[in-house]
Amino acid sequence: MNGPDSGGTAVHPVAFEVIRSRLLAITEEMRIALQSVSGSPTVTEASDFFTGLFLPDGSFASMGFQVSFQAPVVGNLIRAVHARPTVEARDGDMFCGNDPFVGALHQNDIQLAGPIYADGRIFAWAGVEAHVTDIGGMDFASWSPNARDVRQEGLRIPCVRLVEGGRMREDILEMILTATRLPAQLNLDFRAFVATINVARERVTELVTRYGASTLSTVMQRMIEVSQKRVEERLRELPDGEFHVVDFLEHDGEANRLYKVDLRMHKRGARMVFDFSGSSPQAPGFINATRSGLEGGVTGALLPMLAYDIPWNQGVVHTAEIVAPDGLICTAQFPAPVGAATVETIWVVSNVCSQALNRLLACSPKYRDRAQAVSDGTMATFNLGGRNQYGEPFGLHLMDPLAGGYAAFAGKDGYEAGGPINSPAPAIADVERNELAAPLFYLYRRLACDTGGAGRYRGGASAEVALTLAGIDEAEALIMTHGAEVPNACGLFGGYPGSTVVQSWASGAAKNGVYSAESQWIHFGPKPGLQRMRIGDVFAATWQGGGGCGDPLDRDPAAVVRDCRNELVSRQAAAEIYGVILNETEFDAEATHTHRASLRAERIRGKCRTADCPPDVETIGEIGHALRLVRVGGEVHIVSRSGATLARGSTRWREGAIRAPFAPSRVLRLHEGLEMSSFYCPVSGELLAVDVHEKGAIPQDDIILELASLGSASQHST
Amino acid sequence: MALYIGTDVGGTFTDLWVSDALGEIRVFKSPTTPDVKTGVIDVLKIAAADRGISFETFCADIVRFGHGTTVGLNALLTGRAARTAVLTTKGFGDTLEIGRMRRQTSGQSEVELTDFALRNRNAPIVPRRLVFEIDERIDSKGNVIKPIDPTQARTALAGLIRANVEAVAVCLLWSTANPAHELTLRELVTEVLPKAFVCLSHELSPLVGEYGRMSTTAANAALGPIAGRYLEALEQTLRAAGMRVPLLMMTNAGGVLPTAAIGDRPAFTLFSGPAAGVVGSSVMGRKLGLSNVLTSDIGGTSFDVGIIAGGKPILRREVSVGGADIRVPSIDVDSIGAGGGSIASVRFGQLTVGPMSAGANPGPVCYARGGVEPTVTDADLLLGILDADNFIGGRMRLDTDAAARAMHDKIARPLGVGTIEAAWGVREVIDSKMADLLRRMTIQRGYDPREFTLFANGGAGPSHAWAFARDLGLHGFVVPAAATAQSAYGCGNADLGVTKECAAYLRVGPGAEPDACAVEAIDEALGRVAGEARVELVRAGAQGEITVERLLAVRFRGQSNVIDVGVDAARFDAGAFRNLANKFEGIYESLFGRGASYGGAGHEIVSARAIARGVLQPPAARAQGTQLESAGVRRVVFNDPAAPVETAIYKTRYPAPDVKIDGPAIIEFPGQSVVVPPRGSATADEFGNLHVSIAL
Question: Rounded CA gap, A319 and A270, in Å?
């Protein structure tokens, strides 16, 4: 029987599918063991963890449905074990690590990996990784804006045998627990890790008994090959070209400096090269990512964007090559602090990768409806520590900031409080559960008006909260984010970005759980850092809405009416951004039509020109819904829906569009180093792009297709 | 003569199980009708005609009428629920929208989870514009932080009248700690909307966690007017025809209750169909002296599994359906898209089967209704398991040639194998998926599947059970006499059952003595739910012995998952707490392995639950049935596609107790084919169940 070719033993296709399903079921059992035993909300709610089965070389053959940044990490630990001549992985051993300079994303991500033996040799590994709330360091939660050196942050565990021959090395565990502020919680997490690896070992060993180790190895290799083949097949359906996107993050813990993550993604045939060479140098503070963080960020976008219907494993990652010199914000060198890497640089790396991949998808008629703007471009932090209402030491890592908006697609709205795409099933706790477990009192948790990026399809609104203490007099709060002055949740094809983060504080504003209206609000910047929170102090936060898609003036007015009724869009925004004139209950069709026409005319006043695309031209491709590639004579032109020729001989269409400054709306705040530009069709005034860029710079051309490749790619797509 | 009736209204058929006082048993089916009631009456009339008596006489003879239905489920899934408003605390009106972010992810497949474009397909059950905020607030201890202001509340309620709603769900923060504000609102709502169906969250789902409580209350309110109307109409018709006993409704948790006791809580009967199937197996298990039973049911599109451990079905806390996460104790039925209609395909050299299904229309290729994708049923036909001329009792002829063509073109050729080998591969893949689900359902909960007896239900269950039972290391399986109407059987044989729960909180540090007041509060909570459950059961007509089981939901401090632990001591005190903690850690280690538990984390108790059961007199049982009728031999593929085995074929409707045959054999019932593999054997028992043993 000829199945997919792999170097190893021939495996019957039926056995292959049976073993593959069993391996996925085992990975799922690992997840259940971990989530059931762990005491960390990052694990039990946010799914910020990873469970997987690996080949001896550290490639993962299966993973659970968790935060996709974490996919490559445990493999690095396995490779580190193999690379140490003094370390031998014996049957029953488990190795622990968390060092970002070995392979973790940051020190909070603790990993445990155990070899699985058969016939006296290692034929697979089981691995687990999870974010723990505190692993020591100068400040609570192990990420500190004050750190200037990784040695000030959480304990680093390079590659340590924690379980030897099936027995926990309690002395080593004690040493690790001594470093943390939350030993009971961390102890529970370590028990969870051991339980997870035990489950995997037992189940895989049962499979070995039935099918033999070499068959299992072959199946795992082939799973990886098949996923790679399927992604490659998909890539061949898409046109070749370069996709150039830039995203920013502000404040490095020391000062409110602006950093850039610059991605040029070259796609040719079935290969992708992600080139980050243009990114900023590493920062003095904790926002940096190491190279393993960079790999995590790229993987975090690749898996959901290109492998949404393909099993997630190393094969998907094999299709991408990363180019980035040492010493960048995303390839920081020792001893750079990296404590907040996951929510800072890695998150932004994932933003640019998803932007590039979405642009790639948008250039194919088959995939363009899957193209999405950026969801929830940041994850703000609110950590609270001290003694809780029960007199116990506690550490809360609030997961509510995950509830940012989900971005719009090219053909449908995003949804409210949908969160990021880097986790298939994120969750936040009920208000009541948080109030019971932690000394918190919510004044509100609700959706925030106008936060979803405007567009023909609207980005989802973000949630917002206001909190105060209850049952205790004071606690220590760590407050930080990026994206308070950078609209990371960028829109697509004329969609507006989602709102920027707002974090504010009112001292003594709540009395007995009731908020007093005349209190003074302080608007924090992105990283106020550690704050002493006293009873009565109120912290309020609104996160990023999802990016919108397409020109807001093209949105169905009935949808705008519905949004207004649900208080997700204000009447002001309805008129100014969407051009919809509301009457008592519905919209005024005639007034709306007139108003929209005048807004479009206003955009291009004095620069308006007439359509110049000849009729009867051959359409050879599309970029989103608004731009067409046509052949005129021997040349390829980019043409708007209204027939304006924007570029000739290349897809650099911005040169023919009308650029104007974009005035940030009420929900967008811009860093002093940034500005925004709009690009309009010179014939119709249709909004084609909203770009965020460095002040004084010209926005980059984001889609540069290789015109020669177009014919072959579009054939594939039929 | 006294008649015991069980009915189950499914999407396609309404099933009826009937037993008379002598233990004579019959099963009938009739198409489900859009109004539901007519389908039930139709099948009763068929049964009456079969007994040769009038419909009225039949109704008058009924001594028990158990009922299960998917009416509520269908109303939710098709958006036909009543127009409902939600009242909640000011500042939290978006709770249904925000959810816990993770809305409706339970039970999703691999692809549904990873394909982010499919997220959030269902809107919340109540749209935002029908959610009204009330200016009030209670804290976690039940203190009134902001008193309710009747004037503000009346202003907000004015919106209810304008919105023209039929039902109102009230869910305020911490109403579980202090219900005063919800009670006030009920009065105010009744003032302005006297006819509305009003539902308070602390009464319906009194647990901490506002999203689950609100979503459950909203779903219940939305179903209230519909389910109430339908049950009333059915009961009236039956009573008019002469029935003298109340209609007993199956609940999600597997007990029956009179409609009067459950009519205002339709969320508790939403999953009565699947629950009744498990109850049926549980009842039969008890008769056979089996306390550990795995129930499996293979229909056209799905494979459903439930577990009965120690004589009790395993429950889950929450179920998701059509935009609502419903937090009601329910029999845990897990399901995967694997059934007779599951489609097989080859992509990139890889053979996959399901979860896509050809359904009933067009159905498998062999149905010749336009299906072109080969399915599991097509494979079964090609392997000789099914008889083209005797499918569903010969009412449908199957097209073997078409099935073979599709199997060859779509599977065999791309894989480079023969058609029969391809069909065998399809069956191997689907059977191993089923074994995986059974394994996940048991091992994940700390049970060894080999300590269970497998019951094979549904049309396709008895033909696949031998394969997945063997995969699990089981020595055999049972085909219940009512395998094709197991839910109706469950409805007709269930005991009365009430589950009551409430929030209760105790937090104890490692090694510390629990706070005496808090322990007393737990004792009080346990006493309250147990008392309520008992009272409700008596009100439902329970006579004789009532058993009340008391449980606490326990976890290690800081965890989010809980485990239900039974409380044996009459009074819950510090000593009882220590026993509870030890018992919890024991269960824990059995679930997650030695070393996984860590008492140093301390413990939390988060809720109390009581399950009261009242035994209903079961119908008598009597040996009946006939000998098997031999119907020749057929070549059937078992383990080796290249070597089909000459297999004896038998026909029967109801096997007599002394029937015993050796494999290989296929026993064809009107709606199912039981496969007895080579070296296996089958014997019938006094209840008409077929026990198939297989050689491992």
Answer: 7
Q: Name beta bridge partners: B304.
A: B297, B335
Record the tokens describing residue B379, joined without a space: 């494979």
User: Do the beta carbons of residue B479 and residue B9 sit within 8 Å?
Assistant: no
Check pLDDT > 90 for residue B524. Answer: yes
Task: Name the residue type at position B523.
Answer: D
- Pick among A388, A446, A469 to test the B interface (most B CBs inside 10 A): A446
- The dihedral over CA atoms of B282, B283, B285, B288, expressed in degrees to the nearest 10, equals 170
What single string gives the DSSP state of each residue in B87-101? EEETT-TTHHHHTTS
CA–CA separation, A219 and B668 (whole Å): 38
Distance CA A301, CA A352 (A): 9
Which of B96, B98, B424 to substitute to test the interface with A, most A CBs within 10 Å? Answer: B98
Q: What is the pLDDT of residue A329?
A: 98
Chain A residues with CB under 8 Å of B559 CB are 36-39, 44, 188
Residues 153-172 of A with CB under 8 A from B: 168
Q: Which two tokens stand for residue A688?
A: 């084609």
Closest-CA distance of chain B to residue A143, Å:
21
What value of ipTM does the predicted structure carry?
0.91
Closest Cα to residue B457, out of B439, B483, B432?
B483
Q: What is the pTM for the complete model shown? A: 0.89
What DSSP letter does each residue of A222-265 carry, written as one string? HHHHHHHHHHHHHHHHSPPEEEEEEEEEE--SSS--EEEEEEEE
Contact residues on chain A for B124, CB-CB shorter than 8 A:
none
CB neighbours of residue A529 within 10 Å: 15
Q: What percent of chain A has pLDDT over 90?
A: 74
> A715: pLDDT confidence band, cut at 50, 70 and 90?
very low
Which residue bears the tokens 């170097």?
Answer: A7
Instruction: For helices A710-717 and A213-237, give the axis angle rounded to 10 degrees.
Output: 120
Phi, psi of B129, deg, nearest 5: -70, -10
Two structure tokens written together for A244 = 């150039």
Cis ω on the peptide bond leading into residue A526 (within 30° of 0)?
A: no
| Tokens of residue A227, six digits | 């996923």
A204 touches chain B (CB under 8 A): no
Contact B204, B270 (CB under 8 A): no
Confidence class for position B95, pLDDT limits 50, 70, 90: very high
Q: Specify the residue for token string 């140490």.
A: A84
Which of A2, A25, A372 lies at the smallest CB-CB distance from B416?
A2
Instruction: Report the percentage of chain A scoring pLDDT > 70.
Output: 97
pLDDT digits (tens, 9 = 90+) for A179-217: 999 888 888 889 889 989 988 998 899 889 988 999 999
Listing DSSP states for A455-516 in one string gives SSBPPPPPEEEEEEE-SSSEEEEEEE-S-SSS--S--BTTPPPPPPPEEEEETT-EETTEE-
Q: Following DSSP, what letter does each residue of B440-489 receive, concatenated?
A: HHHHTTT--GGGSEEEEESSSHHHHHHHHHHHTT-SEEEE-TTGGGHHHH
| Cβ–Cβ contact A38 with B under 8 A | yes
Convert the pLDDT of each residue in A487-532 to its tens digit.
Answer: 999 999 999 999 999 999 999 999 877 888 778 899 999 999 999 9
Residues in chain B: 696
Measured CA distances, A526 to A251, A256, A285, A343 (Å): 7, 8, 14, 13
> Alpha helix locations (H) across B540-607?
574-592
Tell me if A460 sits within 8 A of A416, measured CB to CB.
yes
Spatial contact of B465 and B454, defined as CB atoms under 8 Å apart: yes
d(CA B77, CA A585): 29
Phi-psi region of B311 (alpha: psi -120 to 50; beta: other; left: phi over 0): left
CB proximity A425 to B under 8 Å: yes
